[in-house]
Amino acid sequence: MSTFQGLSIALSSLQTQRRAMDVAGQNVANAATPGYTRQRVDTAAIAGPRASLSDGVRGWTTGSGVTVTQVARLTDRLAAGRLEVATGDAALASARAGVLSTVEGGFAEPGDSGLTARLGAMWGAWSGLSEADPLGPTGDAARVTVAGRSEEVAASLRQGAARTTSTWSDVRGELGTLTTEVNSLATSVADLNRLIVTTEGTGAPAHELADQRDELVRRLSTLVGATSSPRSDSGAVDVVVGGQKLVDGGTAAGIAISGPAAMDGASTAATTVTLGGSALAVGGTAAGLTEALTTTLPGTMAGYDRVAAALATQVNGRHGDPAVFTATDGGAVTATTITASIAPADIKAGNGDRDVSIAAGMASLSESTAGPDAAWRTFVVTTAGAVSAADVRATATATARDSAQGVLTSSTGVDIDSEMVDLLTFQRAYEGAARVMTAVDEMLDTLINRTGVVGR
């Protein structure tokens, strides 16, 4: 090895260790940056020149130093894929639980403002009428109470229907906002894909851009259950939702909402998310919202309607003409249209002057296994069971998501202790290379300045 080759070897080590320290510093600086993936410098020895026969040495001489082969991004595609799936599942379960919790909260059960209490007050008013003198002042007062309590029950059902309609509108608006965000994120992912391909084409790494893109993909996983698939021909990824490509390399597609803009009671048509005009099997939050618009909230309205229909059918059937409960639009009684607009004077206690059989029979409806109270209890209990199951599912999927995040972080995140050890190693290697360069410089100084002049 020539003296000048020694300088070259030392220089290559200085440059390599400096690059390694720069990468370690970048890792430390971004240890708390969300989505940052740890980087590592890969190095390789440089082979030396082949010795000439005149050197009396066969084969290769001493190597020529060290070089950086690449700055690797320590990603874990398997762990990242699992996190994307777990994120979508957790978002779906959370959205479902949130809507059901809102529905259950509207019941106000148990409580004085709940339908159970108002039905009880109405049956109590009928019982009071059965105990009063139908032809006297107490009977007149009891009829006024019956009319008032009956309208309170009708108002409670209308309020429940109105809350359901309002919730439907809120969820529909949230889905619209989600759609806009998804399309914006998809465009950003496609833009980053193109920038990554361009950057890597120049030979420079694009790791920070890839980190930004993967964070956007995980956001898409939350919103629509998206998963990513690396392209074999470049550093870009495709983003897939329900088997269809939302992002195809550098090209982004857009999703839209198909379905009614307003709720039409229990018969509300289905709401779907479309991609390119075709229905898209979304996951994540979007799946929870479309489920709420298509199934959960129309089902809730149907539950209110069943209670309203049972109330009108059984009370009107016992009372006879005129009906106690009617529809404001003159059609079939639903939770949206039910009213008790009967005049107190038209309320009948019985079929004769002092007969109170009708009022007594009304009071007994509270104990009927097929009465309005039973229908309401079934509705409330069924909803409570769905809420409980949804909460359990939301907790389980959130735990699975956190576990998947932990696995990804452990394999791709920055460990400060490890980086400090690496940084110390690179520092010592740099110092060693500097010492080699100093030694070679001293050797050259001896040869140049301290040897005799040839021919003296």
From TrEMBL:
Residues 100-319 form the Flagellar hook-associated protein FlgK helical domain. Residues 8-37 form the Flagellar basal body rod protein N-terminal domain. Pfam families: Flg_bb_rod, Flg_bbr_C, FlgK_D1. SUPFAM superfamilies: Phase 1 flagellin (SSF64518). Its main location: other. It is found in: Bacterial flagellum; Secreted. Coiled coil: none annotated. Keywords: Bacterial flagellum, Cell projection, Cilium, Flagellum, Secreted. InterPro entries: Flag_bb_rod_N, Flg_bb/hook_C_dom, FlgK, FlgK_helical. Signal peptide: none annotated. Residues 405-449 form the Flagellar basal-body/hook protein C-terminal domain. Belongs to the flagella basal body rod proteins family. This is Flagellar hook-associated protein 1.
